[in-house]
Structures are given as C-alpha cells and as structure tokens.
UniProtKB/TrEMBL annotation:
<dbReference type="Pfam" id="PF19289">
    <property type="entry name" value="PmbA_TldD_3rd"/>
</dbReference>
<dbReference type="GO" id="GO:0006508">
    <property type="term" value="P:proteolysis"/>
</dbReference>
<dbReference type="GO" id="GO:0008237">
    <property type="term" value="F:metallopeptidase activity"/>
</dbReference>
<comment type="similarity">
    <text>Belongs to the peptidase U62 family.</text>
</comment>
<feature type="domain" description="Metalloprotease TldD/E central">
    <location>
        <begin position="126"/>
        <end position="228"/>
    </location>
</feature>
<protein>
    <submittedName>
        <fullName>Modulator protein</fullName>
    </submittedName>
</protein>
<feature type="domain" description="Metalloprotease TldD/E N-terminal">
    <location>
        <begin position="32"/>
        <end position="93"/>
    </location>
</feature>
<dbReference type="InterPro" id="IPR035068">
    <property type="entry name" value="TldD/PmbA_N"/>
</dbReference>
<dbReference type="InterPro" id="IPR036059">
    <property type="entry name" value="TldD/PmbA_sf"/>
</dbReference>
<dbReference type="InterPro" id="IPR047657">
    <property type="entry name" value="PmbA"/>
</dbReference>
<dbReference type="Pfam" id="PF19290">
    <property type="entry name" value="PmbA_TldD_2nd"/>
</dbReference>
<dbReference type="InterPro" id="IPR045569">
    <property type="entry name" value="Metalloprtase-TldD/E_C"/>
</dbReference>
<dbReference type="GO" id="GO:0005829">
    <property type="term" value="C:cytosol"/>
</dbReference>
<dbReference type="InterPro" id="IPR002510">
    <property type="entry name" value="Metalloprtase-TldD/E_N"/>
</dbReference>
<dbReference type="InterPro" id="IPR045570">
    <property type="entry name" value="Metalloprtase-TldD/E_cen_dom"/>
</dbReference>
<feature type="domain" description="Metalloprotease TldD/E C-terminal">
    <location>
        <begin position="235"/>
        <end position="451"/>
    </location>
</feature>
<dbReference type="Pfam" id="PF01523">
    <property type="entry name" value="PmbA_TldD_1st"/>
</dbReference>
C-alpha cells in the first residue's frame, strides 16, 4: 500500500476565484471544488473483468448580481482561465430572472476557515490494484464454495478518495477529504429459468473496518441459495417485515417528504405535520454529520454552514424540515445546515448519516407473533406519490409462518399509504451502519399484498 498526502491547493484556488468574482463586479460569490481519485476492480469466475483508475477535479463558481445568480463550472483548474470563467458567469447572471430567495447565508454563524476536523474520515493508505484483485477473488471464491451456488455475477473491490473545498465572499474557506473502501458480491444459484441471484455489500471509510471478504462472499452465496424455488404469497392484508438492507428505503421516503424545497412548493404529504406525531411513540430518526468514520460525515454543508446533528423525529413527533438557505427563506426559517451541491448546480437540501434509532427487541421477537406475513429482502420499482403518500413497490423475500421465516416468495407487490405506515412502524434492535442511510429490521402491520 502507498501513503496518500492531502493538499490544500484546491481550497486556495477556490478562494482566489471567489475573490476575483467579487472584484469584477459580483455582489457575492461562492466556489466549490470537488475532486476524486478512485481505483476499482471486478472479477467474474476468477477472470479480471475490470480494472479502472480515474482522477477527476471539477470547479464550480456561483455569482450573485442583485437578486440574479448564475453558475458556471470547469474541469480545468487553471488560474489563467479564471478571468474568462468569471466574465461568463457575470454575463449569464445579468440576463437570468431574479430569484428573491437565492443568496449566501446571512445572519447565522459560518465556518470561517476550516481545514481540519475530528471526524476521522481519511485512511491514509491506498491499496494497489493487486491487493484489490486479491480481495475480490477471495470474495468470489467464498461464494462459489457455498453448496448450491452455480455461477457468479461478479465480485468487485473499490477504493476512493474525495475532497471538497468551499470558499465564499462571506469569509468561508472550508476543506475536507474522505476515503472509502467497498466490497461487493453477486452470486447465482439454480439453473435456467429457476436461477436466482442475490448479493452482499459493505463499504467503510477505513479498510480495517471492512468486513472479511470471505464473509461477504459466503453471505451472498447463502442468500442466493435461500431464494431458490420461490412462490407467490396470497393476495391480502398482512404484516410486512423489512430486512435491514431494504428498510432504509423508508427513510428515503421520509426525507423526500420533509425536504424544505418540497414543503415550500406544497408538494409533500407531510407539509402540515410539523410538530405532530407521525410515528408511534418512541420512534426516533436522526441525522448525524459528526459520526466518527461515517460514510457521509462532513464538517460543513454546501453553503459553508457548520453541520450539526439533528433529531428529525423525536418520540414519534416531527421536529425539523431539511433546509438549505433558499428553502429556509421561502419558509421564513433559518437553514439547519443541510445544503448539498455539485459544481454545476445550486444547493438543495440533503442528509448525512441518517438512521432510525434502534428499538429494544430482537428481530426474532419482532416477528414472533406473526401467524402469516412477509419478510422483504429485496425491492424493485417504485410508485410513490409524494403529494398523497400512496406507496406501492415490487418485492421478494420470504413468508413468515407462525413467527418463523418459511419458504421464499417473489413477484408480489407491497402497498399502503406512507402516513399510515409510519404510524404503525415498529423497529428492532439490530441497527448496523452499512449504507450511510441505515435502519434496523422494521415491521409494519396491515399492509396490502398483491400476489396470486
């Protein structure tokens, strides 16, 4: 492994570009630089299918002229082109329509200059391609060793390092980096039309936290074999239990509904629910950008506002919208540091390390009283009405019979209304941080199942 040394050059360039825009006539400006270096490999049946390394750096400039703003971006970090870039942005800003809600943060503390943090986001060692290939091959071999596995859809191992540099004429100069290691396996079991596929995946900031490749491969193999010879459940109303690898999808539906932009447009089924109970008592949803070695941890948001943990739902009661500066101004509120942006787009509300707090009972106890239900391990397709909360998704998994997992099932649909579902939602105690958006096993009673 080689040691990778960070550099602050992108931050210096971002600061220079923002200041140049101010000097050339912008009332305000901010600049974001996003860079990444990645190395990835994949193997299938022992043969290397992909070995790719990429390095990219993009720089985005946003200028404000009165109530007008414009964004330009470039992939060339060349000071000699900064004058032309600023001139282009200013020319665009003068002809675009006014937006009374756009602008840099005002009236709130900003990060100032921040170039280090205590979130432990950088593993300084960089793996070689040979090390990644060995990791992927070990993963695939473990999957093949599972009885019943007939083929491989491939194993992959990746490493990446990314940087974010943000500067603005409001005095912001922030910089952080993050590394990421990941490993995945997709295994096949059975033959012909009866073949089934399943997977396992893990991603971490530090390589030392990554699960053993043999464990990931074996899990993928066992998952595929367990899905052989599925049937369809009967059509009816019954409890649905979401496995942790799919239960985090419910968090995505929640955050879409409490996104400040959707609230400002009036297009969310939760638009009138602030301060009201939307989950059962005891349910908590948290967004924590300060989680040590978190996959989405960060010291500041896309507008230079310090990120702080938020308890979005406390004891079942909705506490916060997700706000950037623009959506906050539309709602007469103050941003809570949830802005996210790329180099060619304006900020928009987003989340960091989002999760349902775990409950107090085991998954086994959570399903122990279910005479007939479904346990969902994979979902596909999506029909979600953000305005009404109507929910319908295709699924596969296992029947629950008398409190135990039974035969595999596939090709059925789970449907309901998200507001009703949230109110009946129960959580187990098996929370594990694997995806950046995480949830334990979740049970929701009285769901509509469309099967045979």
């Amino acid at each position: 492994m080689t040691d990778s040394t960070p550099t602050l050059v992108p931050l210096d360039l971002a600061c220079e570009l923002a200041e140049l825009a101010r000097k050339k006539g912008a009332d305000a400006a901010d600049t974001i630089c996003v860079g990444s270096t990645s190395l990835g490999v994949s193997v299938r049946n022992g043969v290397t299918e992909e070995l790719e390394r990429s390095e990219t750096t993009d720089l985005g400039l946003r200028v404000f002229v009165g109530k007008r703003s414009a964004i330009v971006s470039t992939s060339t970090l060349d000071r000699g082109r900064f004058d032309a870039l600023v001139d282009q942005a200013l020319a665009m800003a003068h002809v675009l329509p006014e937006d009374g809600y756009a602008g840099l943060p005002e009236g709130i503390p900003l990060i100032g200059r921040l170039t280090d943090n205590t979130l432990d986001l950088v593993d300084k060692t960089e793996p070689t391609a040979e090390e990644l290939l060995a990791r992927a091959r070990t993963t695939e071999e473990a999957a093949h060793a599972v009885e019943g596995v007939t083929n491989s859809a491939g194993a992959s191992a990746t490493w990446g390092r990314s940087l974010v540099a943000l500067a603005s004429t409001a005095g912001v100069a922030g910089y952080y980096e993050r590394t990421r290691n990941s490993l995945s396996m997709s295994a096949l079991a059975g033959q012909g039309t009866g073949m089934q596929r399943d997977w396992d995946f893990h991603s971490t900031v530090y390589l030392s936290d990554l699960e053993d490749p043999a464990l990931i491969g074996a899990n993928a193999g066992r998952n595929a074999v367990a899905r052989l010879n599925p049937t369809q459940p009967r059509t009816g109303t019954m409890p649905v239990v979401y496995a942790p690898r799919v239960s985090n999808g419910l968090l995505g539906h929640l955050t879409g509904a409490i996104n400040g932009a959707a609230i400002a447009r009036g297009t969310s089924f939760l638009k009138e629910k602030m301060g009201q109970r939307i989950f059962a008592p005891g349910i908590r949803v948290l967004d924590d950008p300060h989680r040590q070695r978190g996959l989405r941890s960060k010291p500041f948001d896309g507008e230079g506002v310090a990120c702080e943990p938020l308890e979005l739902v406390a004891d079942g009661v909705l506490q916060h919208w997700l706000l950037d500066c623009r959506s906050a101004r539309q709602l007469g509120l103050t941003t809570n540091g949830r802005a996210s942006r790329g180099t060619s787009s304006p900020p928009s509300p987003s989340v960091s390390n989002l999760y349902f707090a775990p409950g107090t009972i085991s998954p086994a106890d959570l399903i122990s009283d279910i005479a007939e239900g479904v346990y969902v391990t994979e979902m596909m397709g999506s029909s979600i009405n953000g305005l009404t909360g109507d929910y319908s998704r295709g699924a596969s998994g296992f029947m629950i019979r008398n409190g135990q997992l039974a035969k595999p099932i596939a090709e059925f649909t789970v449907a309901g209304n998200l507001l009703d579902m949230f109110g009946r939602l129960q959580v187990a105690d098996d929370l594990s941080f694997r995806f950046g958006s995480d949830a334990p096993t979740i049970r929701i009673d009285a769901m509509s199942i469309a099967g045979n």
